Amino acid sequence: MSDSTAPKPDPTGSQPNGTAPAGNAPTEAPLAEAAADNAIIPASSGEEPESPVAEIATAPDVANQRRSGDPSAGGGSRLSLRNLRPRMVRWRRQLARVNEFEPILLKEDDATIRKRSLALRYRAMAGEKLSTLLPEGYALCREAGRRALSMRHYDVQIVGGIGLFEGHIAEMQTGEGKTLTATLPLYLHSLVGKGAHLATVNDYLAKRDAEWMTPLFEMLGISVGIIQTEDDQSARRKSYSAAVTYGTAKEFGFDFLRDRLLLRAQNRMQTEMLGGGDGGFSDSGDQIVMRGMHFCLVDEADSILIDEARTPLIIGSIEDNVRDQIVETYKWGSKHAPDFELDEHFEIDDETKRYELTARGRSKVRALPKNDLVRAMGLVDLYEYIERSVKVHREFLLNRQYVIRPSEKDPKIDEIVIVDEFTGRLAEGRKWRDGIHQAIESKEGIEISVPTGQAARITVQDLFLRYPHLAGMTGTAATSASELARIYRTPVVRVPTNRPPRREQLPSKVFGTLDAKFEAIAKEVAEVHATGRPVLIGTRSIDKSVLLAGMLTELGIEHEVLNANNVEREAEIVAAAGGIGKVTVATNMAGRGTDIKLADAVESRGGMHVICTELHDAARIDRQLIGRCGRQGDRGSYRQYLSLDDDILKGGYGQIKYDKLKNRGEANTGSADRLANMFHRAQRKVERRHFRDRMVLMHHEKERKKMQREIGQDPYLDTPD
Ligand SMILES: Nc1ncnc2c1ncn2[C@@H]1O[C@H](COP(=O)(O)OP(=O)(O)OP(=O)(O)O)[C@@H](O)[C@H]1O
Fold this sequence. Notes:
The chain has 27 helices and 21 strands. By secondary structure, it is an alpha/beta fold. The chain has 3 domains: 36-251 and 463-494, Rossmann fold (3-Layer(aba) Sandwich), CATH 3.40.50.300; 320-451, SecA, preprotein cross-linking domain (Pre-protein croslinking domain of SecA); 502-676, Rossmann fold. It is globular and about 95 Å long. The protein starts with 24 loop residues before the first helix and ends in an 11-residue tail after the last helix. It binds adenosine-5'-triphosphate (ATP). Adenosine-5'-triphosphate (ATP) binds next to helix 8. Adenosine-5'-triphosphate is lined by residues 12, 151-154, 157, 172, 174-180, 475, 593, 595.
């Protein structure tokens, strides 16, 4: 930590408000302007979480944005909702109070800043309200940022930070400095001594952001902990004991479950000891790692709180050696199944279609060679394994009942996907029960997915609902505002950009077929590429990214493909994507969290051009892609390409109407641009359906937990498999 008394020069050139020299004007000008006209723009009337979705969804700004069909609208626009004015006025007043501290803090040395921070902590611990401490706290944080990181929180960031402190989801455009903004509510909430968590999507981001912000926190006497997947219990305990802890939603969830299991085990031991008198309770030194859940700030809030919301975090109860034994026995079964003959070794019950070994079949099983793991399995179990394997060999055929393809989660691993016998379509995510699925995996020689057995389970949603104070940041929340407000009681606010955005939306183009669309896209890539501007093309699936890449190769355009198949090079590809003449084809969320920095000469040529090749099921994902260009006031442009055979039309209007549109598309030779709005309507229908599905699921889960509590069970530990 630096002891210098003189503050470090501010590379942003910005000065405290009111004392700003002329050169500072560009940095703070938009805020001054925006502040006068509602610095923060509500994306929904989330203040009334109880209000019906329609009311929220039709909040004027969202509605305007959708009417214009511009999924990137927002950010710097200045729209206002009359009924939310009081909140904005209050936040602006608080900003003014934060600013009042600045000239005073500027004159103080590092040691005094730290002392002030300690004094704030005492006051918070003594029970003073954090909202009273906010102006000085935020001013201290800003001053620490300026000295330790050479970054002074912009006024918009301070106002965004106030919104976060008050439990909002702040929508900030990519590149607007969410990492620095996060320090404000983290610092303030950490003062009460119960810990403040920042949850992000992966270990890498947790570590990177924590390390980047640590000098700021250290200057204020605030310790920082980082949770990484490989950490052991004692490292975790240490990280959680820090004032501020960075980690992933997943790790926070697992630690919560492990602690809960441990507490139950200890509780049981204690009860046994008290009851039996001779119980073996000993405090073996096992201690929980978390020290409660007080405040959590969720980065990439929409993806964690909505996309991942239903993801269950499960701690398995099957131990590794048992798992190995099960896997081995499946393999053993499928190896020997072809040697079993109908009628001689097994029979099939006409009614139940059950396979049953005959006496000869059973003695054959006993005589089969077995390794130690298989031998340790009970004989009755072995009969069942063989019966199941024989059934699978006779009845389940590759490319008829199922296909094999690379797993979406990990393309290096193959997986079995069931073919729906009625529709002939792939039944994504479905599995056969009673070991059939595993027996097929074994027959095909691919990794056997032994179920874990559940010892404890929590969904990401439940986890965050347990925090009494929750807030989030994201580039794209406005379109999910109603859902976030309804589930988490976290209203969404839009934070305007520090500098006005200069991103240009080019008119959407609609084609009859995918082929026609892709040809036009390739042509546009060639044209923009010739000017030296970088082009980023987003596709909905891996195969489409490959198709487009093939077309670009034919045109002789050098390019990079970024999809789930080459995640290792992700950061490298994204970092280079803003160079002169770069062309990058990416599937949706790829490259998240890495900044695309434009090469110097790119800005004067018009910045980056983004091409969206199809609408996604959620407008939010489209906006994420579009947000890649025109960052921090850079120039940039984007265009949406659509065709009448796009999946979104099927999802929105159903198969029959989709088939009609597709036929119309095939007959269509000219432009169909006038139909662009139809695609956005379809997208809204899909979004609404997904929202309804999620609400139904949430309702069922809630009921289940209620019932379990009523009968004295723990909904996280007594989980149905
Ligand atoms: N107040 C500030 N003063 C100077 N530079 C800043 C300030 N705030 C942010 N920056 C710079 O802006 C850049 C983007 O910051 P950051 O990565 O936190 O953005 P982000 O909003 O998280 O973007 P993404 O959505 O891509 O994750 C960084 O290089 C950071 O140094």
